[in-house]
Predict the 3D structure of the following.
Amino acid sequence: MKLWHEDFGKTKDGQSVTRWLMENGQGTRAAVLDYGATLQSLVFCGTDVVLGFDDMAGYEAQDAYVGAVIGRFANRIGGGRFCLNGKTYELYANNGPNHLHGGRVGFDKKIWRTEPREDGLHFFLTSLDKEEGYPGRLDAEVRYALDEEDGLEISYSAKTDSDTLVNLTNHAYFNLNGHDAGTLDGQEVQIFADSFTENDENCLPTGAILSVDGSPMDFREMRLILERINEPDRQLKNGNGYDHNWILRGEGFRECAKARSRKNGITMRVFSDQPGMQFYTANFLKPEKQGKNGARYAPRAAFCMETQGFPDAVRHENFPSPILRAGEKYERRTVFRFEK
């Protein structure tokens, strides 16, 4: 894997941003910014399959977390607060009444320290005690690596000096027809899950676990993303499309999803050790924000496969615990593997 870097400009407050590039022997190339540890580009067989921006002005103008690592807690926490060890912690409510993707200034808006190594590109970030309301100092690390089988691995680790919540993921927006294709037409998905967590009208889990059987949420067999997205289903109305946590079958590192473009034959297989995956159809992208090479990213012009712990898990005892205890280590990994 070849690895090099270049300047990507400055943030509004004058911080320098670096773009790191990785390329394998097949010519597959990934670009990652130290701003948000953001996946800015992923070119497979000549097609850039992730949405992004050409400069820092584009990233700072958008609010869709495009390509970024999300933390401390990916997804939603109800009411902007949680109770841990008998104490209530108040968080910033930036998604209606809920806390979303780490708050006002989450990990997606931070400059990460970068260290290239033989096994990939490592990013480091320290979140101080009470930052965004979370208890404990958290030291996080994310590693990107591009292998010779066209797999992009993103691995996460973290440790804390006090009990806290952790749920890290990457918020890449994929369009296998190309980032500038403008539509998800002809793209199909399979999710290896028999159930999902029910959402309320604010896309917050109610705590109920529902079967996908007989519903538009059933992706157990490969089918078109847009095939049932406009059906008069309560869950689809709550999310303005797909924006739900699927409960992945099995445990440990395993294949959990697959996507394919009927137009160009590109297939993406997703492997992870996470218990859940938020499948999101970019329902709130804003086309007035100009993307790479002048592309306009409209709603449902991409999909996200955010492998992660369950949303709002701290408030539901039947969900996998999101608590990281002092002295323990958080470790997760996901691989997006491309074929044609």
In short: The CA atoms of residues 72 and 101 lie 7 Å apart.
